[in-house]
Amino acid sequence: MHPSRSSGRYRRKGDGEGMDDAQRREGAAQKPRLKELGRLRRGRKAMRRAGTRAGNGMRVWRRWCASACRTVQGEPATTSKEETPKRRLAKRRAALFVGYAGSKYRGSQINRERAKGCTVEEVLEDAIYRAGFIAENNYQDFGKLRWSRCSRTDKGVHAACNVVSLKLVVEPDAFEKDPEGIEIAERVNQHLPNDLNVSSVKRVSKSFRAREWCKSRTYEYYVPGKVLGIEDGNPQKERLDKLQEALESYVGNRPFHNFTVMKNYVKKPSTKGDEDSGPVETMVFGEEERKVAAGEGRTKRAWGSLKWQLEVNPKDKVGSSHYRKITDFVVKEPLKMEAGNYLVPLQVTGLSFMYNQIRIMVGTAVAVAMGAIPVDALPAFFAQPARIRLPIAPPQTLVLSGADFYPFRQPHVQADDVLSQGPLGEERSKRFFRKVILPEVDAMSDAEEWDEWIHLVLETAPSSEELDRFMGTYQEWREERKQIALSRAQEREGDATRG
Predict the structure, then answer these.
(1) Looking at the whole model, is its pTM more than 0.85?
(2) How many CB atoms lie within 10 A of CB 466?
(3) R_g over Cα of the chain
(4) Dihedral angle sign, alpha carbons of residues 273, 275, 279, 284
(5) What is the pLDDT of residues 302-316, one digit of tens each?
């Protein structure tokens, strides 16, 4: 029979025998960290335990390693409660008002598979963590953080005021002392580059998510004055009026399937018969591919062939996901820059936008202003059987200028019922726009890319003969739809009379 473990013979050195109280406390404080470090050294087994996906496990692994090594090697052990009193913190759902110049970023949405620092959200999250407002076990986990952005911007697009909501670790009375969160914003800005800025931080309700609660987004696109012929103080009122007329044709709830990458918003066929369906009959007006040579062995084009589907293709069907509501689209007063050139702001407000939709709307409207196509052709591009590739304007002068939100369900955490910036935050946003974003937009407006774009839009535009045939088909389709609607109305009236 083995002797009892309670005997002195089997008692391990350091379990308490011959140690004073300070040494016992020091050993007790180090034990959890040493145990954690030993657990990490077991490798793959610990990584599988950390998360179901290898990527998530690796991130947790790195955090554990950094935390354990920092504590074991560099941090002094806690010997008493009086020496290092713990600061009381609380988790608060908050909204950050963020501005950035997007020229060097590959869009705003995070992608952890890409190189570090290539997206706005990755740089912002790292700065918030380094400022001490993200808990260590929530770092690099957007699910735990409840991270949500009100609008996602593409590569090269800027933002004067984007909104990101997440859980922050702050002092319980932080927002009572500073309702606009200027102190929090300043601490985060200390870890951000010059092209990224947090103007203010506001507390929101627990159920708030920036994307779902956003009621509308507003963008501004700055068209170089040389594109519209505005130079040396020449206002070109006729062109600006034609441009405004083109922009007004976008207002309303319309199918913008020709103003985006359509396949991204087409639902998969629900039946096997739809999947096996062959090609449908399509009318093509003009050449199949309209191209202009631009360099050796390279071709570019701004327009595609005008096509009209004579029957519905289940794989290329216009659905509810292609509809977007535009509430306002206006031409604002041209801005004169320091170098003497002009920028013409086009402001658009809508509930939401599809991929590249704003740039294609602007490119097509500018093509109308330049005389490439008549303004009467625009309604035909919204017809469901119409298929055409439209010119897309460059991204470097597009700016997300703001967003509006629905009222809070429980407005006790806010002075106002709706999320909005205070006067200090608004002034800080405007200052960042003037000092950082606008100079970058001005520099990009003078790039050679615009000269090439103007050339492609004018040279590859559909001919008048092709447009006439296309518009004739569109008018026949409209009359046919009117007749169908009229006959259905008459049938309903007849059923009501007989009933």
Answers:
(1) no
(2) 17
(3) 30
(4) positive
(5) 888 888 888 877 777
